[in-house]
Specification:
- There is one protein chain.
- Helices cover 34% and strands 24% of the residues.
- It has 407 residues and is an alpha/beta fold.
- It folds into 3 domains: 113 residues, Rossmann fold (3-Layer(aba) Sandwich); 219 residues, pyruvate-formate lyase- activating enzyme (Alpha-Beta Horseshoe), CATH 3.80.30; 46 residues.
């Protein structure tokens, strides 16, 4: 009888890409595999520690797994177990714990168990994920050297290390996806064997797939990078990390750019890609943030014209510089968060409406799909995996209603 395995993932696109590799490896070992929580003989929990809430959800997932099968074996990996392996190891049902940097070891130790966390000096290669018709997340970099004052991830993922361009090209060429998302903890620091992010794009320029990125830093948006992006099949959607619109808060966060430099990067993107969507993250209520600082974040949302903003109230992470600062009152963070979400929603609405009546190419998934500049589109008779030319007709729910042009 075929054994069943479930790989359950919390957190970032990197975790999603790594989980897809783990699922492929389990299939090769003869398991029937799913990523949905259901009955299984083996559970692999890929955890997240970017916020306290993410860690809490990671711990709670074990109880949810045991409700499906109290006799199942549970293996845990990821940032939350890297941060504190013992809290997971003592959970009933957990027999194997690795961290954020030892996911390859998890595959080697499925029959043994134990606790295996620790540093990784080279890029951790995992099996290529199974072929897909739609979107594939491809890991190209891991770790981070930036040490932003609020972020625990460099302590858990380790120092920046990059995957070889040849290995990336091998996975991209074999995956069969119509869209590739290049992922990493700090994509902008990618460098392997003299090849930076611009050089990698030139290596990938002839692949028969659309290319997107995870989060980029201001430092990545150079004329060289934008020229390479235009030469390659890069979609006009750039997630450009911001965190605050205030220079004072950016300095306190140890972010290495100013408001003016950020807006200049946005302008360069829009000059190279006139229809580009620029999305971002903003942290609200950093301990040093004043009302005037917050208003700077409000105003930069309007000035940059973001297509979407992920808004996060500040969450102190033990072990970071920011965790030692006096936290702002919860009601202040809640009120500012609500104001910023409202402003971000207004800008998103304006961005989407700008393209109503225009044509776009959409890669359809199970429920709708995305235009080149990442507007969600829904069309009748669209099938998963199809790349179709459409006309964007009207605003609906989280995107637009579209009609397929031609056959």
């Amino acid at each position: 009888m075929e054994m069943k395995a479930c790989v359950f993932t919390l957190g970032c696109k990197m975790n999603e890409a790594e989980s897809e590799s783990l699922m492929t490896a389990l299939q090769e070992r003869g398991y029937e595999v799913t990523d949905k929580l259901s009955y299984a003989d083996l559970y692999i929990l890929n955890t997240c520690a970017v916020t306290a809430e993410a860690e809490k959800k990671s711990r709670q997932a074990i109880a949810r797994m045991r409700k499906f099968n109290k006799d199942a074996k549970i293996a845990v990996c990821g940032c939350a177990s890297e941060r504190d392996a013992s809290v997971f190891a003592k959970k009933e049902g957990v027999y194997l714990v690795t961290g954020a940097m030892q996911k390859r070891k998890l595959l080697d130790l499925l029959d043994e168990g134990g606790i295996f966390c620790g540093s990784e000096q080279t890029f951790c290669e995992l099996p290529y994920p199974a072929r897909t018709r739609t979107r594939a997340f491809v890991r190209i970099q891991d770790g981070c050297n930036r040490f932003c004052s609020y972020c625990i991830i460099p302590y858990l993922r380790g120092r920046s290390r990059s995957r070889s361009a040849g290995s990336i090209l091998g996975e991209v060429s074999s995956c069969g996806a119509k869209e590739i998302v290049l992922t990493g903890v700090d994509l902008s620091s990618y460098k392997s064997e003299g090849c930076d992010l611009s050089g990698l794009l030139l290596r990938l320029k002839d692949i028969p797939a659309r290319i997107r990125f995870g989060s980029l830093e201001v430092s990545a948006i150079t004329e060289e990078f934008l020229a390479a992006a235009k030469a390659a099949p890069v979609m006009p959607h750039f997630h450009l990390s911001l965190q605050s619109g205030s220079d004072a808060v950016l300095r306190a966060m140890n972010r290495k750019y100013t408001r003016e430099e950020y807006l200049a990067a946005c302008a360069r993107v829009k000059e190279a890609f006139p229809t580009a969507a620029i999305t971002t993250d903003i942290i609200v209520g950093y301990p040093t943030e004043t009302e005037e600082d917050f208003k700077e974040s409000l105003s930069i949302v309007r000035e940059a014209g973001f297509a979407h903003v992920h808004v996060f109230p500040f969450s102190p992470r033990e072990g970071t510089v920011a965790s030692k600062l006096p936290d702002l009152p919860p009601e202040v963070k809640r009120e500012r968060t609500a104001r910023l979400i409202k402003e971000a929603a207004a800008q998103e609405e304006q961005f989407i409406r700008r393209f109503l009546g225009t044509e776009a190419t959409v890669l359809f998934e199970e429920d709708g799909g995305y235009t080149e500049n990442y507007i969600r589109a829904y069309a009748e008779n669209a099938k998963e995996g199809e790349l179709k030319r459409v006309r964007l007709l009207e605003r609906v729910k989280d995107g637009v209603r579209a009609e397929i042009i031609g056959g």
